[in-house]
């Protein structure tokens, strides 16, 4: 087994429960299965952003999650929001992800998550493979992202077709975004701030937890006016 991706966590945040992924050096799963291309198993017990950066630096270009992400199971909400955030962190680095998402029977529910690297199946729908194919056909990197500027956070969201752009400069909103980076309990976010995020579908509830949908970018993949 490769070294654990360890690190420190915020002094006011509980240590996240570790989970194990497998990683390879190539986007093609068949190529990644070759002995020289496999990076083996990594136990992740740091933030998703830090883990994604370390995996990228180690040469990982394809990562497999250990189990499906089920946003319909309130009992598994803590895992679901952390896993979704981690998939976003990997997507931001153009690392492909082998994963499955259970959204329930709504055939359009995937659009809330459609900026993430497409899963192999969208479970719970009438045709999980076909729904995943529609997701893949509509996917491109930086579809729903945020970035830090001097004193502000900017969100650019194209999940629903048109560009929606938000510039956020209030400190309490910045604190909420930081708290939501790997998912958070619903009672950890001020109600007024949370309601604004919910109204714009920037936060999605999963059981008693919350997921911050945009993933962070540090450099635009294209001119920002295009994205």
Structure write-up:
This protein is α/β, with parallel strands linked by helices and 227 residues long. The chain folds into two domains: 19-138, no CATH class; 144-216, no CATH class. It is 26% helix and 25% strand. The chain contains six helices and 14 strands. It has helices spanning 29-32, 48-57, 77-92, 128-138, 171-179, 191-199; strands at 19-24, 38-44, 62-64, 69-70, 96-98, 100-102, 121-123, 144-149, 152-157, 164-168, 184-185, 203-206, 209-212, 215-216. The strands form four sheets. Strands 2-1-3-5 form a four-stranded mixed sheet, covered by helices on one side. Strands 10-9-8-14 form a four-stranded mixed sheet. Strands 4-6-7 form a three-stranded parallel sheet. Helix 2 (48-57) crosses helix 3 (77-92). The N and C termini lie far apart (39 Å).
């Amino acid at each position: 087994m490769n070294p654990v991706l360890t690190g420190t966590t915020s002094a006011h945040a509980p240590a996240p429960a570790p989970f194990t992924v497998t990683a390879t050096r190539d986007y093609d799963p068949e190529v990644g299965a070759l002995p020289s291309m496999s990076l083996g198993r990594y136990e992740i017990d740091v933030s998703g952003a830090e883990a994604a950066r370390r995996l990228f630096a180690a040469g990982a270009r394809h990562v497999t999650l250990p189990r499906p992400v089920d946003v319909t199971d309130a009992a598994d909400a803590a895992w679901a929001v952390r896993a979704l955030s981690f998939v976003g962190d990997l997507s931001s680095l153009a690392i492909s992800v082998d994963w499955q998402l259970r959204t329930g029977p709504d055939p359009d529910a995937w659009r809330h998550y459609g900026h993430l690297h497409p899963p192999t199946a969208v479970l719970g729908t009438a045709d999980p493979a076909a729904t995943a194919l529609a997701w893949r056909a509509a996917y491109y990197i930086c579809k729903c992202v945020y970035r830090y500027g001097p004193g502000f956070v900017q969100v650019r969201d194209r999940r629903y077709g048109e560009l929606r752009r938000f510039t956020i400069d209030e400190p309490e909103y910045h604190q909420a975004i930081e708290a939501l980076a790997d998912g958070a309990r619903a009672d950890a976010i001020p109600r007024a701030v949370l309601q604004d995020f919910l109204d714009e579908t920037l936060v999605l509830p999963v059981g008693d937890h919350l997921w911050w949908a945009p993933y962070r970018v540090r450099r635009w993949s294209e001119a920002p006016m295009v994205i």
